[in-house]
Specification:
heterodimer; A: 108 residues; mainly beta; six-stranded mixed beta sheet; five-stranded antiparallel beta sheet; B: four-stranded antiparallel beta sheet; globular
């Protein structure tokens, strides 16, 4: 069983749509990361969460520790948001366990 | 903005050859990491490094792999005798704080192709 599950695996949207990507995990964690992987392969850290909610520009990340669930929201999506979004969890050590990613394509 | 840099961006090698992948972490960061991503698969943790020693490693990080920080700026991953299954993108990352408290900064990755 995967310790980190993301849904959906693939997502297409029209420019301007509100997008939600979900992440569920099965273990106790110390923190959860949302990462963005560009088409060229590079990875950028978007958020690190241990509780509550964080916002950065059009991106919002929430986490519910009791339900072992996190969501990444993108408001007013744009074609430049097209990327793979990856959820990764820390188990109280330095080791990160990654989800398989959600491939997002936003069309103009 | 400070960034993590990795070299080479792409390396092709023959099976059995030694490979060294290099990373220059952000200068005031203390925690360093290597991850790998086999094509089409998820990213996997390899090793974390702090205070000149390995703090944690995964099952993947066997005796064929080693890491070192030879000169206070570079952080290297060595694969002693490459296998076909070592073909992957290798990412270096660094953080000011460890143990899940610090934001991670990733390099652009080094693609390794083993023939």
């Amino acid at each position: 069983k995967n310790e980190v599950e993301q849904s959906p695996q693939n997502l297409t949207a029209q420019e301007g749509e509100f997008i939600t990507i979900n992440c569920s995990y099965s273990v106790g964690i110390s923190a959860l990361h949302w990462l963005q992987q560009h088409p060229g392969g590079g990875i950028v850290s978007l958020f690190m969460l241990s509780s509550g909610k964080k916002k950065h520009g059009r991106l919002i990340a929430t986490i519910n520790i009791q339900e072992k669930h996190s969501s990444l929201h993108i408001t007013a999506s744009h074609p430049r948001d097209s990327a793979v979004y990856i959820c990764a969890v820390r188990l109280g050590t330095d080791k990160l366990i990654f989800g398989t990613g959600t491939r997002l394509q936003v069309f103009p | 903005e400070p960034e993590v840099t990795q070299t080479p961006s792409h390396q092709v090698t023959q099976m059995g050859q030694e490979v060294i992948l290099r990373c220059v972490p952000i200068s005031n960061h203390l925690y360093f990491y290597w991850y790998r991503q086999i094509l089409g698969q998820k990213v996997e943790f390899l090793v974390s490094f702090y205070n000149n020693e390995i703090s944690e490693k995964s099952e993947i990080f066997d005796d064929q792999f080693s890491v070192e920080r030879p000169d206070g700026s570079n952080f290297t991953l060595k694969i002693r005798s490459t296998k076909l299954e070592d073909s992957a993108m290798y990412f270096c990352a660094s953080s000011q704080q460890g143990w899940g408290t610090g934001e991670l900064f990733f390099g652009e990755g080094s693609r390794l192709t083993v023939l």
